[in-house]
DNA sequence: TTATTTTATATGTATATACACCTATTGATT
DNA sequence: AATCAATAGGTGTATATACATATAAAATAA
């Protein structure tokens, strides 16, 4: 869908400003198409993100700060997201022996299992709405990374 | 910055999946570089978004539902965002005469003034980190719209 | 060693998202 | 007209963002 129709406006001050709004809107769009599927597993995007990060290092543990560094949204409050996952017994907390300030997080069998089912479901959804070619995806990745060239 | 460095991983199942994460991360990045500026005006991104929408139709009023339709994030709780803006006297609520279910929202002089100053500040920030050409921005817009081709 | 600074995590607060549900009003149906 | 359904906006709840602050442990400096 054209951005003009998504936002009901055509007042863009430049192509670059339109691109900014287009990225923000597309990010919302991407989240919204998968949130229903995640809800079926009683997971939020952020909880799913944490589980995915933990699986990447499994069976190694990760401390809270190392999870935070890998989050898509860096301002995520990781301890609180872990609280919810811990209640559902999808992760386990232990205090690090080598540095008692650190809390080590491990994904449980149950966490791995729910991650596998939900990932499989999300992959199907993404495959079903796939409209761009691999070449176009590469191009998109290049443009986004060029956009973020300025370090802030 | 490369996405690999932003998320400290290189486990992407495809270019398309990487593009998905790249869009989500870039959206967060774009918000984060302007949130400090907005904070100086005691505005959140969503409050700014509502003011911008209202200015687009000024001096006409807009009802809550018409604002919601123009929001970047369609799941925004517009009545609550308007609550905060009303407390700060940046917008005004009136009940519609023609349909008493509707609440009409108008941006105040004070709202217009704060919108102008903050927009000017945001434009400066965006200009200072501008790294892509107009042609690249156009290309980016095309790719994002192609990505969203599937109606959901 | 003691004091200071830094680091890791947790907690507090305001606002937002996401979604369910309630209430009042309008429009349609019988 | 009375009933029912649809619509608009407001409210409630759980979780998240964004950011400030607190607390405990570790690293460094005095």
Characterize this entry briefly.
Chain A is built from seven helices and three strands, in the order H-H-H-E-H-H-E-E-H-H. Chain A has helices spanning 3-7, 15-40, 45-57, 64-70, 78-87, 109-128, 134-147, and strands at residues 62-63, 91-95, 103-107. A three-stranded antiparallel β-sheet of chain A has the order 1-3-2.
Low-confidence stretches of chain A: none
Give the full name of the CATH homologous superfamily of the domain at 37-123 in chain A: Winged helix-like DNA-binding domain superfamily/Winged helix DNA-binding domain
Mean pLDDT of chain A: 95
Indicate the CATH class of the domain at 37-123 in chain A.
Answer: Mainly Alpha
Supply Rg of chain A.
19 Å
The percent of residues in helical segments of chain A reads: 55-70%
Helix segment tally of chain A: 7
Separation, N- and C-terminal Cα atoms of chain A: 31 Å
The largest sheet of chain A, given as strand count, sense and whether it forms a barrel, is: 3 strands, antiparallel
**Oligomerization:** homodimer
What's the CATH topology label of the domain at 37-123 in chain A? Answer: Arc Repressor Mutant, subunit A
Could you tell me the strand content of chain A as a percent range? 5-15%
Secondary-structure content class of chain A: mainly alpha
Largest interface: A-B, 62 and 61 residues
CATH structural architecture of the domain at 37-123 in chain A: Orthogonal Bundle
- Provide the succession of SSEs of chain A: HHHEHHEEHH
